[in-house]
Structure of tRNA U34 carboxymethyltransferase:
Amino acid sequence: MALALEEIRERVGARPQWYHTLELAPGVVTPGWFDLRTVAPQVLPSSLAGKRCLDVGTFDGFWAFEMERRGAAEVLAVDIVDPRAWDWPITAGDELVKLLEDRKQGGAGFDIASDAFGSSAQYRECSVYDLDAAEVGTFDFVFMGSLLLHLRDPIRALEKLRSVCAPGGIVCTMDAIDPTMSLLFPRRAMATFDGDGRPWWWMPNIAAYDKMLRSAGLAPVTKPTPVRLPRGGGHPIVKPSKAVLMNREGRRLLAATHRGDPQAWAHSKVVGA
Ligand SMILES: C[S@@+](CC[C@H](N)C(=O)[O-])C[C@H]1O[C@@H](n2cnc3c(N)ncnc32)[C@H](O)[C@@H]1O
C-alpha cells in the first residue's frame, strides 16, 4: 500500500541526496542529480503492457517505476548497492567512494520511492556481469541507462543484456557519448578514455556506440539517437569562470549544467534470436 503524504515528506526530507528526480506524491519531488522526466517519453515505448521488464543499475529506480507506469506485467530492478564493488581504476581515492556511498545509502532511495508509489517492482542485488537467464529468467524489455561509461568491460555487459533478452524482445540502452567526437567523426568509431580517479572509462562517439552494440550481438533498430539529460534540483550549478573555461572537464561540466548531459539511446534487437 502506498504511504501517506506526511510520511513520504518525512522520508524524503531525511534523505538529502538523490540520483533521480521523482515526484513521489503531489508536490513532493526528490532533489535528484538528474531530472529524466522529459527523457522517458522519448526513450521508452508508450506502452509496455504485459511485458516482463528489467532495469539494470536502477539507483533510485526512476526507469523501473516508469516501466511499471507503462503497464509492465513485472519489473525487476538490479543494482550494486555498495559503490566499492563498482569498476574503479586503481588511481581512485577513498573520498569519492565515500561520497557515492553517502548518495547511495544502501539503495534507500529505491525503497522509499517503491513504498510511496505502492510499487510491485522487485529489487535485487546483482551486477550486470552476473545476469544469468537461469536465475532471473528472460525479459521482453531490457533497459540499461548511464552505466556503460562506468564499466571496465562494457561489451561484456552488453552481451549479458543480450543473454537475458527474450526472443523478439528489445534491449534499450542510453549512455554517455562524446558530442564533439560525434560531430567531427559521424561515421568513424572513436572514443575518448578517462580511467583516472573515478569510475569513468570509455566515452564513445555515436558511431562507436552503434558499433559497441553490434559487437555484442545487438542490432540497433535505428541509429542511436542523441539526447540531453537535464540536471535535477540536487545537481550543483557550474558557473562560467576563467578556471572553469580553462580546462576540458570544466567546459564539459559547464555545458552539462546548462544543456544537459550528452547521451544517446537505442533500441536493439538480438541478432540471431
Ligand atoms: C550513473 S547511475 C545510473 C542510474 C540509472 N540507471 C539511470 O540511468 O538513471 C549508475 C548505476 O549503476 C550501478 N552500477 C554500477 N556498477 C554496476 C554493475 N556492475 N552492475 C549493475 N549496476 C551497477 C550503480 O550502483 C548506479 O546505481
